[in-house]
Amino acid sequence: MKRLEGKTALVTGGARGIGRAICEAYAREGAKVAVADLLEKDAAETSAALGDSGMAVTMDVTDRDSIAAGVSAVEETFGGIDILVNNAGIFNMASIEEITVEDYRRQFDVNVGGTIFTTQAVLPGMKKHGRGGVIINFSSQAGRRGEPNITIYCSTKAAIISITQSMALELAKDNIRVNAIAPGVIDTPMWDHVDSLFAKYEDRPIGEKRRLVGEAVPLGHMGHPNEIADPCVFLASDDARYITAQTLNVDGGNWMS
Q1: pLDDT at 257 over 90
Q2: In terms of Cα–Cα distance, which of 7, 4, 20 is closest to 229?
Q3: Active-site entry in 26, 104, 153, 242
Q4: 26 is catalytic
Q5: How would you class 92 by CB atoms within 10 Å of its CB: exposed for 0-12, middle for 13-18, buried for 19 or more?
Q6: Could you give the C-alpha distances from 190 to 19, 37, 46, 134, in angstroms and in order?
Q7: Helix 190-201 to helix 208-216 angle, to the nearest 10 degrees?
Q8: 54: β partners
Q9: Domains present along the chain, CATH in parentheses
Q10: pTM for the complete prediction?
């Protein structure tokens, strides 16, 4: 029997990169998967690749009405949500002198608010069906330590670690487990944007930061999205039934805790 047979998962930011890899891994393990994303075309393509196991959901995790509509659509189509993966996130850099109120709010609204309010929308149905559930949040190695010119992003990802702990303790009585993944440097399309920002703030040629961070990983290379998706399958499965309130580092050895 596949590890997620009979389960339904909602994955935010599911259209590309890590999110798509998670959707594909969940479908392979027998789950029905809702690919939730602002990128409608990409979400539809990812959903189509999943066949009958997938559905595309247009969702803006900063808009509670959009979240509610997406969650309702998934529940109506698949009959309930057993697994929520709060993967949607954005990254930006700025020196302390250059941080704007708009960027501060945007990163917290997506990375932190999106996690809180998507969870809030899923919980009534998850509690009602009485099967318990799993919530997987996304932190980062940037949530384990500060980094220059990344004050806002690092602080949002540190917040996710604390939020995960609080949610887990609150929801344990409902048999809902809450854990987080803290990825290291993962080779996704987002790294084109990240690399260009490092080129600006560290005065580097395009591509150099990407090469250097890969070489600095103890295992010697950037991670692949599938290397994040596999632990997400584990945390969503009964293999992890006694694990909650944890943040798992999946970073090739960059951070030890």
Answers
A1: no
A2: 20
A3: 153
A4: no
A5: middle
A6: 12, 15, 17, 26
A7: 100
A8: 33
A9: 8-186+224-250 (3.40.50.720), 187-222 (no CATH)
A10: 0.96
